[in-house]
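Dear H.,

Thanks for agreeing to be a second pair of eyes. The structure we're designing against is below in token form, covering all 426 positions.
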């Protein structure tokens, strides 16, 4: 797997309230296939905010700079692998992540995203084989903070990174490279500077997350499945803050074999992170600080398991609509009271100065490796066969055209009954 590999540990790409609202429709062809967006209520949240004025730094393998669903959303980034300033994706993982967070939406192409008006800063810190160095990630984080300040934008840092060993399997716990003093300090400095930092919990399936946030404005995210349970390979434990959709998630993709403007599906905690990053973007675009946005996300998560926080689900399942204070009105339902258990709230303190380095720092640089499912994302056609990491038969997504026409017809009826005018994206 390449690049200066010297250690067994690896980094794996592994409240303002608004009235109840009918969802804002999207004309993106694969919108009906994006179960994760619908589960968190992103289309309802769009009636309150779409993320304008916020920059999402995707620190990853780069991003496909010419993808039809991303190129209008990008600001010039950087490459800390080759040092040539070209943040083009040569693997595909970063493009998947970027699309979930902030792909162009309602443009009659491809997919929709959580934060349609947010911009993407592509920062390449992982090479084409999925490996790199912690110091490259450290530089990428520092660069992202400076770039956001230069552009005068609020910043979200998306770190779909995790700890794993050289064999690429999930054996006994290994040192957590995200706690490498260089990376750990950069993460904390970014939070202190006002960035919301969103980190993947990892794909070991064990009771230990890749990072344990002890600073306000930082969230560690696990993966949920279609049944709203913890995905079986999602890491969990005391360091987990919440879970978000992370199985068969449809998004933009880059593939050398499949050419331009490819779409695929993927599973893993790294694909859950951009759901939370996008939600933080929506909140910060409405004036919240990084710590306020993080608190709001936790306080409005849908409680799962025992009441309150638990190690399997953290504070619960991400609810983007609830975080934006929007009560969902489903097409087949009358308005109902929110079901959130308001007693399950996680206290957070304000960010402080960076903590000292760990007493036992990693002695040598730890390489980086991608977090990805065993099978690469398939190219999607008109109907998508979703990948099935658990070995199930692939499932077919419903036909977009007929489903959307039915949805629009029912939504139009409800709009005429409950709302004075049509709600659209803004």
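And this is the sequence the design step returned. I haven't edited it by hand at all.
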């Amino acid at each position: 797997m390449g690049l200066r590999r010297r250690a067994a540990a690896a980094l794996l790409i592994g409240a303002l309230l608004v009235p109840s609202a009918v969802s804002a429709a999207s004309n993106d062809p694969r919108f009906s296939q994006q179960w994760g967006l619908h589960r968190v209520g992103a289309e309802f949240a769009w009636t309150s905010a779409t993320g304008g004025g916020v920059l999402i730094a995707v620190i990853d393998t780069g991003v496909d700079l010419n993808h039809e669903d991303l190129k209008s959303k990008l600001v010039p980034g950087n490459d800390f692998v080759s040092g040539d300033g070209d943040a083009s994706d040569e693997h595909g993982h970063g493009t998947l992540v970027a699309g979930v967070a902030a792909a162009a939406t309602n443009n009659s192409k491809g997919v929709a995203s959580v934060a349609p008006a947010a911009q993407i800063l592509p920062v390449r810190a992982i090479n084409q084989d999925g490996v790199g160095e912690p110091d490259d990630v450290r530089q990428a984080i520092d660069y992202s903070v400076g770039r956001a300040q230069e552009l005068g934008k609020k910043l979200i840092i998306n770190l779909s990174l995790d700890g794993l060993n050289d064999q690429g399997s999930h054996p006994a716990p290994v040192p957590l490279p995200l706690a490498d003093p260089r990376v750990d300090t950069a993460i904390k400095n970014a939070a202190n500077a006002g960035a919301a930092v969103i980190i993947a919990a990892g794909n070991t399936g064990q009771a230990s997350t890749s990072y344990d946030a002890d600073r306000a404005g930082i969230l560690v995210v696990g993966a949920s499945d279609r049944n709203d349970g913890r995905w079986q390979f999602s890491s969990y434990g005391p360091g987990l803050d919440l879970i978000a959709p992370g199985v068969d998630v449809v998004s933009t993709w880059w593939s050398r074999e499949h050419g331009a403007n490819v779409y695929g599906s993927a599973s893993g905690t790294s694909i859950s992170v951009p759901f939370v990053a996008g939600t933080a973007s929506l909140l910060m675009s409405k004036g919240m600080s990084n710590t306020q946005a993080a608190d709001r996300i936790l306080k409005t998560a849908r409680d799962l398991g025992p009441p309150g926080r638990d190690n399997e689900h953290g504070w619960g399942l991400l609810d983007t609509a609830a975080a934006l204070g929007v009560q969902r009105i489903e097409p087949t339902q009358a308005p109902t009271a929110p079901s959130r258990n308001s007693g399950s709230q996680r206290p957070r303190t304000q960010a402080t100065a960076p903590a000292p380095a760990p007493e036992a720092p990693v002695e040598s640089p730890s390489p980086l490796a991608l977090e990805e499912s065993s099978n690469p994302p398939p190219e999607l056609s008109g109907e998508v066969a979703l990948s099935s990491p658990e070995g199930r038969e692939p499932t077919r997504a419903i036909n977009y055209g007929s489903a959307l026409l039915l949805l629009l017809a029912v939504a139009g009826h409800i709009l005429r009954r409950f709302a004075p005018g049509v709600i659209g994206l803004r």
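Two observations from my side: The mean pLDDT is 76. Residues 9-14+29-328+364-371 form a domain with the Rossmann fold fold (CATH 3.40.50.200).

Warmly,
E.
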